Amino acid sequence: MPDFSNLIDLAAERVGGAVLFANDDFFAPKENLLKASAPVFVEGKYTERGKWMDGWESRRRRTPGFDWCLIRLGLPGRVRGVVVDTSFFRGNYPESCSLEACAAEGNATVEELTGEGVEWVEILPPSRLQGDSLNPFAVSSNERFTHLRFKIYPDGGVARLRIHGEVLPDWGRIKRAGGLVDLASVEQGGLVVATSDEFFGGRQNLIMPGRAADMSDGWETKRRRGPGHDWCVVRLGAAGRVVRVEVDTSHFKGNYPESCSLEAACAPEGTGDMGESVNDIAALDSLSWRELLPRTRLQAHTRHFFEEELQDAGTATHARFQIFPDGGVSRLRLYGTILD
Question: What is the CATH class of 171-338?
Fold first, then answer.
């Protein structure tokens, strides 16, 4: 899978993504496209309309044209790659697909999005698909988008659609709201750019909205059998000064870390995103790291809040979260003030 798969899924349901409309979803509903779970196949399961399929599936087209649906991104941003998952669609997958995008104001309605006033930009030209496969496509557009139009040619079924990219928040609105901001949050453009291990739970779970649903919804490493400790590096959505931290070990009861610590660093101007290489550990190690939270004991299944314990680490663009020696954490919140 290309490197873009480590970026945030801008269309994921968990961040507010939704399929607003489909011209046809006769065999399987459009909402399946953005499900967080991997698609499944149930042998012998049928509905009154035909074989039950875990995806979006239109009927067989008998006239010229194509099928399509409208998607609202949960997090507006820059699309870097797309994965069109046709798992279990073997004799009924589309021959090809394409993707268009637009930037719409506010909560645009279907009527507004299908009107003549919307300017759609093709970000993925018609591209061949393979059945029962993950079909990855890189996207090179640098524009900020809020909605997508996904087209399949001429008809058929797609199990899942993943839209990987870089979150571009509305910082004007966020600043007008005032108060502290979770600089690490995916909603503010935070990204976990590197980690020592994520065997049991993905690193991006740490910065997702809301509370974790269960252990699978956190960051969890394998059991360490040698010296050392596990860690991850978060690129903050904006440069700022962290003044309040939350480390949430909810659901981790027999596998929470014994303790944790935090360091902060400020990347040189022009390299705040560490370039396109989100896994450049050498570049991250070269930053000047300063202690933010000294090594501190943790408890099982607990939300830990730290303010007085924090050191003044100055302005930060990155945070290094270290857990000793290993284990799982459901959420990490780094509240602070944005650097003007």
Answer: mainly beta
